Amino acid sequence: MKRRILLLAAMLFLGAYQYASGQDLKLNDREYFEQQGVNVLVYNNLFTGGFNDEKNAGIELIHHGVRTAQGGAVRLSNTPEQWDLVPDILNRKVDRAAKTVEATLQYKEYNFDSRVVVTAKGKGVEIAVYLDKPVPKELEGSAGFNLEFLPSQYWAKNYLVDGRPNLFPRYVVGNTVARPNTQKPKQYKGYVTSDDRGTGKFIDPLPLETGRTFLFAPDSPERMVRITSPDADLMLFDGRMLAQNGWFVVRSLLPAGKTGKVLTWTVEPNAIKGWVRDPNIGFSQVGYLPAQPKVSIIELDKKDKPVKSAAIFKVGDDGKATKVFTGKINTWGDYFKYHYVKFDFSPVKTPGIYYIQYGDTKTNNFLIGEQVYSKITDATSDIWIPIHMNHMFVNEAYRVWHGEPFKEGYRQAPPNTDHFDLHAQGPTTDTKYKALDLIPGLNVGGFFDAGDFDIETGSNISVVQNFVKTWESFKPQRDQTFIDQKQRYVDLHRPDGIPDVLQFIEHGTLNLVAQAEIIGHMAQTLSNAVLDNYHHLGDAASLTDGLPYNPKLGPYEVAKDGRSSGVKDDLWAFTSREPELDLRAATMFAAASRALKGYNDDLSARALTQSKRLLKEATALLANQKQDTSGRGNAANMATNLQLYIATNEKQYLDRFQELLWPSLERNVSGNLLTALDAIPHLEASYKEKLRPYVVKYKEYIGGLEKDNPYGVPIGLTNWAGSGDVMSFGTTVCFASKYFPEIIEGQHAFKATNYLFGAHPYHNYSLVATVGATRPKAVFYGNNRADFSFIPGNVAPGILFRKPDHFENYDDWPFLWGQNEGTIGGNTAYLIFGSAFKNLVK
After folding, report:
1. CB neighbour list of residue 666: distance below 8 Å, 6 or more residues apart
2. Domain 280-368 - what CATH class?
3. 26-269 maps to which CATH number?
4. Known catalytic residue: 805?
5. Above 90 in pLDDT, residue 22?
6. CB contact burial 598-628 (16+ within 10 A = b; e otherwise)
7. Dihedral class, residue 717 (left if φ above 0, else alpha if ψ from -120 to 50, else beta)
8. What is the pLDDT of residues 762-798, one digit of tens each?
9. Hey, what CATH topology would domain 373-618+632-641+655-662 get?
10. Collapsing DSSP states into helix, strand and coil, what is residue 80?
11. Which of 42, 418, 460, 492 is least enclosed, having the fewest CB within 10 Å?
12. Which residues form the active site (predicted)?
């Protein structure tokens, strides 16, 4: 009996040991710490400074499938903003034996280095900061270790500080102090994120709480995290005091005058015992045609055992659901972090309301019917696009989306100016205008780029081309927008007797022709002069004061006649000449001249004149430059010559197009095939036959995508998600199947719609805030982003890849542009894809 008791005790001890070991964080093959339900990444994603919003880097916590913490690093302020300095990561060392990841961080602006060592310690990690030299005197009281937590995952949850209970606020409420600007740490490239209104002081948030032990979300096991420090106070800040995209920040200051191991934290994320991520059942939230392929792609935790079958239920007239189909689950395999299976329910063809049941998981309802795709572009063309018309007052029923922006016009950007939006004015202006001269006539037409209010010339060129392609290919007669260029007034949902797309072409061309005629070539951008304007949220008309800047006036002073002010808020034109951009503009002008003929003949003629001029001048400029090895110049030149041939029927343009086309297809068939297909209606039959082998090659590319990922579409793995690649793929398939149906099956286009409308990683929400989607994303990035809302018709960049293996798309936090920002280029690419797709399914 005694032996049996000892044996039982040993077995219980061993079981407890195995359970404890199973709950410990391990350093995995992808070089991050992992246990089921918890991933701790250590500088797998690095800070970049400037344009990156810096909420995607440093030490990161993926907690039960959601990235809830990031930014772990030595930082120089309580609540860092986008343009605050970030450390360079000089090296990253992984020691598997010691279970550590170490990185050396450097602020070269201050000659300040630190080492951060993260070590697995039971269920958590120890984070230690080492200094070989003391904190520089000018950073004492500023340098500290920060870790930031996602507000939307914590607001309305409780936290404890040394046992004291509190509640995370839903909206930012707290205290700040105003400090002299001399105490503010430097910002990226000397930029200043705020307007101090002449006070010479900056805002510094005060901590919400201070202590040695923090327990976050004890009332929510999936978000519970314990942070302790034996040698420094922990402070909790709310970053939203300075910027709406700020996170909750836990911070400890580094001690002055010390070296060696100067700071230690222990971070213990709770792991729910036996937790397995719920299946993500991917399907089209817009629905399906009766005859189309219907395949649900189901994303599973690798610990989840796939079930053998799934079922389709039909909701009847009486509201009761009846099982109408059961199908086998087929394994696709692993793709990065998760395992994927497929459920083919193509035999279900009867129109009606349905849902999918997979194991214990039930989806929301979706439709099967002949008209499910008929409205997929309406919200984009009726609402999102006209809202983004610059230099216009835009009204919708009782709502004003924005007043008329930038009445004061645009000024010449000074030479040698680095811009925070990755533009630069070179050593000269490349124009007849001197620094800060007003360039008259540019405040007409054009479209806001995205969540900001600048006119990105390259994007606007693509936009007009997308409109022209939509117009010439499908002649959409939809008219739901009143547009008056003389009144500079737009009213949504009010027909004016003119097809909207034609008016959009006109509006975009007005600004771009003005650039070519007035500047002499294309500007890089028409954008903000000061950073405080660039991150403006709200009505575009309130971004500036509407009055030209007068250097004779004092700051914020208004002239007695009310016609000028001392506010340096006028937008600038960045005019350094880029021949490739001129070539792209020449392409667009040639296409626009055709579309506008008969509607606005004067603008049509002006566009054609600029197309020919810019092609000639840009070609000569490129010939004098070093050889372009990227192929971008050739691609632009190729498309320009095609569009000019279509517009003029002059053989010289056709010859040059063909000279450039075939080598471009050899280099990159997937990127250049669509341009080649555009030429088919305008050339002889022999051209189409010569193109045939490249279409076969494109078919092989499609087949390769099926093997690459379970969705069979190109999935981008950069810091801008891949919806644009998916739409380009779908558009190419639509036109390739039109001209070569015996090679390219049109059904491949359904992969693109399925992906956009819900069959993708992370969640199954439609990435388009579109009419017809049962469950579109709830929040998007735009000038509305602080309202946690969406502008109808917006298309999100999509599912963002975070190294080394995590996909995400927040639906409760709009501020990450790489996954949630709708752009004018992306949304008009969706318009051409949606139009081509609707034409295909007819």
Report:
1. none
2. mainly beta
3. 2.70.98
4. no
5. no
6. eebeebbebbbebbbbbbebbbebbeeeeee
7. alpha
8. 999 999 998 889 999 999 999 999 999 999 999 999 9
9. Glycosyltransferase (1.50.10)
10. coil
11. 418
12. 812, 821
